[in-house]
């Protein structure tokens, strides 16, 4: 079983200490009653991975680990087999001792678009909401974060994170908790909060923005990345049953409307720092994610539209501050 005790010890003194009033009981309940049917099998793969300390660790320009003396082919194949047991891999990529995990998303491309526009992460306490496998947590550590805490209720992602951490040398500065944002109390403790690829999955997007604000210290920074549509401040798309084959997409505002939502929730210094269409080079089927991907969700005759006839995925990055 995954041990969260080290994280509890790390936060026992400091701005997150009051989280211990609720967090251990939530994790205990999760361990006793909420485990996915495949969790034991996934965790077994993690436990069989070797605990390695790399000679060369790269977290600044990517996420990779290597030895000065390469592993044997048998060792490399053993690691690859165990990591493939944790498919599908959606967020990455990772390069681990000669095993290149070519994930569905080029999350490094997203990071390259976001990073130039945010406050320096050096010595910051960071929360990443809906962090997936934790790829961006490692990039945050590479940027100097004091601690990067990810939350994501998807248990496969937790096992992927633990697998990567084990191969990166068990760095104590990154943690992933199997929780949703709605399970967090108002911590008012993080210097930077990231919410990337989450807002459009929320039935109540303004509640989500309030929840994010409640995790920030005064003066803290929100980094929000989400699907948007073209239009003025009054434009919001409410898709039908599916959007790009996804069932749980509720609201796609324009960047201008999203700016107003942030203002309504009390954020200030709001900036739209990036906006662009998602390409089939950035999100695609790979050997590590073999089911359908973006190309299958777009109109084959017109990639400017989804298969349902909606505008193709357009993503914006907004940065805002808690007063």
Molecular structure report:
This protein has one domain: Rossmann fold. It is α/β, with parallel strands linked by helices and 323 residues long. The longest helix has 14 residues, at 155-168. It contains ten helices and 17 strands. The protein is globular and about 60 Å long. The protein has helices at 5-11, 23-33, 39-48, 73-84, 107-114, 135-142, 155-168, 205-213, 255-264, 294-297, and strands at residues 56-58, 64-66, 91-92, 94-96, 99-101, 105-106, 125-129, 147-151, 174-177, 190-196, 216-228, 236-237, 252-253, 268-277, 298-299, 302-306, 314-321. The N and C termini lie far apart (40 Å). β7, α6 and β8 form a beta-alpha-beta unit. The protein is 29% helix and 24% strand. Strands 9-8-7-10-11-17-14 form a seven-stranded mixed sheet, sandwiched between helices. Strands 1-2-4-5 form a four-stranded mixed sheet, covered by helices on one side. Strands 3-6 form a two-stranded parallel ribbon. It catalyses: carboxy-S-adenosyl-L-methionine + 5-hydroxyuridine(34) in tRNA = 5-carboxymethoxyuridine(34) in tRNA + S-adenosyl-L-homocysteine + H(+).
Task: Throw out a few tags for this protein.
single chain, 323 residues, alpha/beta, Rossmann fold, 7-stranded mixed β-sheet, 4-stranded mixed β-sheet, 24% strand
